[in-house]
Amino acid sequence: MLTNLVKSKQSLIFLTLCLTSYIAFVLLALYFKPVTLANFLGFLALIAYIATLLPSTFRTVFPNMRSNKILVWLLKRRRHIGIISYVLASNHGLLMIIQKNINLLSADTYIRYFQGILILFIMSLLAITSNDWSVKGLKHNWKKLHQLTYLILLILPWHILDKMSPSWSYLTPLELIIIFLFVYFSIKRKRLEAKSS
Ligand code: HEM
To answer: Fewest C-beta atoms under 10 Å: which of 80, 86, 87, 145?
Structure first.
């Protein structure tokens, strides 16, 4: 009797999930534009960038997650993930330049794509200095330089909202939710660090 009840509950949950997924995908197809490779690369760059901030932020905000295996794995590979994010972001920028026929010799381009270019510039600085040699050479300035990563967290939603405002893709709402959640966790982290110091 009890096992039958559990089974029918599981079937009901499965059916609800199926129906919800149909509704969600029909709505996405109706109201959002499809994703091009350039957009998808921008999305992947964002995910990789967030993955670089995730371990230190989550370990402070959720102290009971300090020994979480995924967070420890991400922490150890933070530099490599940051470089992967940079490569994905520069490929996104390159494909956008080709796709949208962006003229790099026009001053207007640098005004119009100011946020994307600034993020790419910051990411270049971080990628070039993501090695032991730079840590030794720059001493305490290295930490200050790498604090610039938090500036990306503020410019990125501006870039996405500005560039995607004519019509959002399937990925745009997800990207914005991820960024705003992360901004919230980063503020919480800074507050906790200020309290404990
Ligand atoms: C030279 C630099 C860049 C240029 C010219 C550029 C250009 C663009 C353009 C034109 C769009 C709108 C695409 C559309 O209309 O469908 C866009 C969206 C986007 N860009 Fe960039 N971008 C640059 C750098 C970056 C960087 C460094 C990132 C870092 C993560 C990034 C992440 C994104 C994301 C996540 C979207 C939204 C994609 C979507 O929701 O489908 N971009 N970019």
So the answer is: 80
Amino acid at 89: A
Same domain, 111 and 164: yes
Per-position DSSP letters for 81-109, written without gaps between them? HHHHHHHHHHHHHHHHHHHTT--TT-HHH
Domain identity same for 14 and 49: no
Q: Do 94 and 142 reside in the same domain of the chain?
A: yes
With the most atoms of ligand 1 within 8 angstroms of its CB, the residue from 92, 124, 175, 180 to mutate is: 92
Tell me the residue range of the domain where 27 lies. Answer: 1-31
Q: Is the CB of 35 under 6 A from ligand 1?
A: yes
Note whether 38 and 18 are same-domain residues.
Answer: no
DSSP letter at 68?
-
Q: Which of 163, 171, 172 to mutate to test the pocket of ligand 1 (most atoms within 8 A of CB)?
A: 163
In angstroms, the CA 58 to CA 55 distance is: 5
Same domain, 127 and 177: yes
Per-residue pLDDT tens over the stretch 154-181: 999 999 999 999 899 999 999 999 999 9
pTM of the model as a whole = 0.89
Q: Are residues 49 and 142 part of one domain?
A: yes
